[in-house]
Amino acid sequence: MKINQFSITSTTPQERRHELMQIHLLRKNEEQTLTPNAMFETFLARIHMASAQPIVTKQWFHDLLATPESALDNWFAQNTPLTDEVFYLVALQLLDFEAAVDFSIADPLTTIKKINLPAEYHQHWSTADVIDAFYLLLNTHNKNGQSLIDHLTAEGFLAWTYHLPAEQKPIFFNGKPLASFDPAKFIREVVYIETDMDTDFDGKADLIKAEIMRPIDSEHGLKVPAVFTASPYNQGTNDKWGDQATHNVNIPLHHKETKYHAPAEEKFPTKFSHQSMTGESKHATETFSTTPAYTLNNYLAARGYAVVYAAGIGTKDSDGLQTCGSPEQTAAMKAVVEWLHGDRQAFTDRHSGTVTKAWWCNGKVAMTGRSYLGTLATAVATTGVPGLEAIISEAAISSWYDYYRENGLVRAPGGFQGEDADVLADETLSRTKRPADYRRIEKINAKYIDKMQAAMDRATGNYNKFWDSRNYRHDLKNIKAAVMMVHGLNDTNVRPSNVKALYDGIQDLPIPSKLILHQGQHIYINAFRSLDFSDMVNLWLANKLWGQENHADDTLPNVLIQDNCTPETWTAFDQWTEGEQKQYQFNDHRLTNLPGLGIQSFNDQQPEEKYLQWCKQPQAWAKALINDNGQFSRHFVSKAFDADALLRGTPTVTLKVASSKNYGMISARLVDLGNSRRLTISPVLFNRNGLELGYHWKTDDLREFRLEKEPTSYKVISSGHINLQNRTNPAQIEELAANQFVTVTFELQPIFHRILAGHQLGIIIYSTDYEYTLRGNEQIEYQLELAGCHLNIPGFTILP
User: Fold this and answer.
1) CA distances from 585 to 110, 589, 603, 659, 690 (A)
2) Within 13 Å, how many C-alpha atoms sit on residue 264's CB side?
3) Does pLDDT of 768 surpass 90?
4) Is the sign of the CA dihedral 524, 528, 532, 538 positive or negative?
5) Which pLDDT tens digit goes with each residue over 718-745?
6) Hey, where are the domains in the chain?
7) How far is CA 416 from CA 437, 498, 524, 696, 738, in A?
8) What's domain 185-400+410-573's architecture?
């Protein structure tokens, strides 16, 4: 077990004492009048939430160990000097670690260092030392993944703060607001924000429904910041529609005509009316009970942030059509930020014309969320909209072409073969949940989806105007918000190329940026035991939204990486790509420093029975690919590594290749070969509802990656695909003759991977990818001229 904390910010002795007094843990003159032992005993008595009665506290002390031989109450009675061993033996128990399971009672300091808990050591403890060490202990994470102060708060330690005057909130501790806002009194209201577009062709500006949850204190003069999640899934989905709309991928690739251009997508009206204002109200007339929520937002809500959800155009109780990542969808979510900032009008309901303002908001907004949610946060940030101070962009798309296409090919996101922009639009058109409303737009929507299908162009897989309008990278220069990016290095849904392009594109901008790369797939990381992610976000948003001078940008790492070999290990770096460039030549079946000679070939066609089996079970194909003897792929492997090495950045593959047809595609997988126990593919749940987000409030399930019980012989660490007719770029079709050798260079997915001594690096070159590409099962022979084939890794470092 290892706990990594990056959110503990530096404070002065005066600040620490002020904060301890503010939470009623330290009182005036106690530092001058109490001995170290008495100060320690006083702190412990005040955090005991079961009862304030001395007899109950004494019994609690009687059940805590101070030394291997002495209970805490007896140790206090003996009045022996406080030592590091005593303080941290008690600390481990307060942090819910189990004696004889998690630590040895005879040697608590070894466990403190092994688990990586912050600590202060003193040869002779003074009262001031006790105060400083206890302050640090309150900020230390326990076995269940939360700081001691948050754990105490969840037990009611700060319930008295619910009744404080609004002007005395929030209460900041170590630069972060504490959970001092009463969840039982949250105000829940609905507003309808007017946009400047008409995407359902009804002649009226689209209205967007937003659901708001804010603290009661905002009714009494406290201006609070808003955390906004733009989620097209929030009002429901049409899963059966998505299944029915899914495209057949068991079809062959074909030759592309060089002069082909896809038709344009639908244009929306430019002339429409806005709703007339008939009056103004301070409060909305509509409320809601629950809404699908991100648990990070629940955590933040108890700490004074207003939480806002909007599903956008084409969703239940809003106007418009679903346009899947278009500029119109971005504009709809931007409108929510504008209203929160005070720059746009909203109505208390859909028809009365009664305007309401976000008068309770301090005008500062952050956007949060994963996948489509994080994508829209990125999209809105590229507009440079005033009021958007920060985004937390998790597993987000930065170009929709990279989500549904790759280098002139139709390429599915992992696990969703046959999905495309039109399918996602169908799935998220939750206006169907209001049948009469849907009937009014049914024909208009069907016409729009037909045009979308043609414009997105599954026929060629080319980059075109449809995808260009959904490429947010064009406008990265407009970003003014601070950006925190979170992505899984093993995410096969939204692939890491999306976050790498965003990260690279903003490094020269005058904005703070942070990057966190974990070893998961398409997941949230705010409920990991090994990382204080929620605290990091709280510290960061306290700076960006509350204006706290808490050194957040200096405290949090610029790049934070979860190690792929050792569980619960996170390491800070300055940048993603660093190290020497390493080039491997393809030589016979090896990756070497010397170029190879000759030609190697493979045939993409499979027996019909096996083909059909692999179409149904792509995972079986993936295993067969690793074990293929050269029938449908070629394998090239390095020598075993003498020492651990770090591979960082975006690998590229250059191939001199020919197809026996006048079309073809090439795929590649980069593989770590070696027998090891690797991390589980997904985090393991080990404490359901174990993470408390506030007092009498929500919980989250505690998760963590573990080592698999059995070793495995390989791990795919990157992959890539290219159409041989898109050798120059995805938008340009080039002629290809049968058996014509051409040179293609294409990027694999970005990596940050530690390869262990004794392991080998392998690359597999093949064509059809049953997990991601079209699957035609054609009789095509591919040839590789080895002298023109090599692999480049931009950041390569041998570790000491």
Assistant:
1) 47, 10, 22, 21, 51
2) 3
3) yes
4) positive
5) 999 999 999 999 999 999 999 999 999 9
6) 13-157, 185-400+410-573, 580-678+707-798
7) 30, 18, 19, 39, 32
8) 3-Layer(aba) Sandwich (3.40)
**Cα separation values, 582 from 485, 578, 596, 792, Å:** 27, 12, 17, 6
Candidates 127, 118, 123; CA nearest to 91 is: 118
Of 105, 108, 131, 141, whose CA–CA distance to 18 is shortest?
131
* Percentage of residues of the chain with pLDDT beyond 90: 98
Catalytic option among 200, 491, 532, 535: 491
Mean pLDDT throughout 77-103? Answer: 97
Tokens of 75: 């140790």
Residues 6+ apart with CB under 8 A from 65: 71, 72, 89, 90, 93, 99, 105
Q: What is the DSSP letter of 97?
A: P
Tell me the C-alpha distance between 62 and 77, whole Å: 11
* Amino acid 50: pLDDT: 84
Calpha distance 35→217 (Å, rounded): 40
- Taking CA atoms, 676 is separated from 270, 520, 714, 715, in Å, by 60, 18, 8, 10
Distance of alpha carbon 93 from alpha carbon 96, whole angstroms: 5
Helices (H), 47-142: 54-62, 72-78, 84-94, 108-115, 127-138
Domain 580-678+707-798 CATH (choose: 3.90.380.10, 3.40.50.150, 2.60.120.260, 3.30.2380.10): 2.60.120.260
Mean pLDDT of 465-473: 98
Instruction: Give the pLDDT confidence of 540-551 residue by residue, as tens digits.
Output: 999 999 999 999
Identity of residue 381 = A
- Asked if 371 is an active-site residue, the reply is yes
Beta carbons within 8 Å of 32's beta carbon, 6+ residues apart: none
pLDDT attached to residue 293? 86
Q: Of the residues 141, 151, 518, 522, which is catalytic?
A: 522
Query: Could you say which of 231, 371, 534, 719 is catalytic?
Result: 371
**Cα Rg for the chain, rounded, in angstroms?**
29
Residue 491 designated active-site: yes
Q: Provide the pLDDT for residue 53.
A: 87
**Cis peptide bond upstream of 165, omega within 30:** no
Express each pLDDT in 12-31 by its tens digit: 999 999 999 999 999 999 99
pTM to 2 decimal places: 0.97
The pLDDT score that the predictor gives to residue 348 is 98
Expressed in percent and rounded to 5, the helix, strand and coil fractions of the chain are 30, 25, 45
Q: Apex CA 489: angle with CA 488 and CA 494, to 5°? A: 60
